[in-house]
């Protein structure tokens, strides 16, 4: 069964009809939450400092992964960067093009074969990894599409603050707290569940070093979020 393009439907309704109906996020681990559609169309001044810093650190040719409505790509274009924006949502790519993104494509990052100086993974960029077990494969793909001297700019959040400190869980089989299963719905349409990974910085650094990357903490946000920069070690 073909997956419903929830984000695409919501972005088109907002862009063409000014419909602000939010996307609802569901998880068995948390109460339902909302994504305000207008936030996906934000400009630089409305972005959190992790995203602002990432855009200011970008250099060379840029791949904007999971570009959504194209807000990051548009900012970089205005700064005369050569940027390619990709997303698995056909509706999102259609809207990104409508807004002026020059090079936008419906594509999964894991199928990317061109090379870039900067790989941009924002709005919880580690989410694309899905589960911790996929981290090595993700970093291997990153190596393949990074030009010599290139960088990965990726953000995420540390969810350990959600753990109950009064009731420690010593179950070694318990999954990592940042491994979340989500599904999303919009106007009665609902997606399948999908895995999404929130990865704390220390865990990201360990994985990066294991895979021959340097990993630097660039900035921490107000909500347990952070931006990291990864570069391939030359030693």
Automatic annotation (TrEMBL):
It comes from the Bacteria. Residues 62-150 form the Methyltransferase domain. GO terms for molecular function: methyltransferase activity. One of its GO terms (biological process) is methylation. The keyword Transferase applies. Coiled coil: none annotated. The keyword Methyltransferase applies. Keywords: Methyltransferase, S-adenosyl-L-methionine, Transferase. This is Methyltransferase.
